[in-house]
């Protein structure tokens, strides 16, 4: 493997780690990170048409998938512990990652033009995401039993978090009181927890991945502008507003700047690759 090829692999692997961690870290959306890293549509294509899409995207998605597995497992263990010890700083880092990709995401939204309906879709996505945030904060969801059916529902929620950009599955799992039981089962490799969770997730992926893939193909501008609205609302929803001390505020600001710089650097690499391909 050449140096350039290794660098691309390492970059995609790192992005996969963040996407995988985003599937379990509170307040973070794995699908949203997939969008901002430019791998969401290929992922949806593979999930909806695996035989055809794998031939086209396997080089792109292999390091992302490997990194995603590492990120998810790390999120269930040490990374989650670190998150709770420095939650505000960790959220600020992810906020910076999202902020740094907004310019490239906005350009991507307009590749097939913008119409009045595009801006309406943006506003609708923004409003829907804010509605979800406010609903979770008011505790409108009822707890679920920590049994096979409950964990199947938890798997469905996690899968939706990987399909719908901006939808963070962890706050929903916390609202239905399944986050900690699911986390304990994942760390202990309890098949009684993992098996129904995987089955529930796979069922949702089979039902909805093809639908979302179709929406992005048939209604590109509307779909991407709706996602952009979701991204903006997610940033507003996870924006830290309280700090324990001035030191925590400074550390959080530094993490946000670091995340923004990393995202801009990653977006710059992607743009250079696209320009060379033309």
The biggest beta sheet reads:
none
Summed up, the domain count is 1
* Rg: 18 Å
- What proportion of the residues form beta strands (DSSP E)? under 5%
What's the tally of helices? Answer: 13
Could you explain how this protein is built, in words?
Helix content is 82%, strand content 0%. With 278 residues, the protein is mostly helical. It has one domain (3-277). Helix 1 packs antiparallel against helix 2 (30-36), helix 1 (3-22) crosses helix 4 and helix 6 packs parallel to helix 13 (246-277). The two termini are 23 Å apart. The model has no long low-confidence stretch (mean pLDDT 79).
Descriptive labels:
globular; single chain; mainly alpha; 278 residues
Quick take:
This protein has 278 residues and is mainly α.
Write the layout of secondary structure elements.
Layout: H1 3-22, H2 30-36, H3 40-48, H4 50-76, H5 78-85, H6 87-109, H7 116-137, H8 148-163, H9 169-175, H10 179-188, H11 191-218, H12 220-238, H13 246-277
Helix pairs in contact: 1-2, 1-4, 2-6, 3-4, 3-11, 4-5, 5-6, 6-12, 6-13, 7-12, 8-9, 8-11, 10-11, 11-12
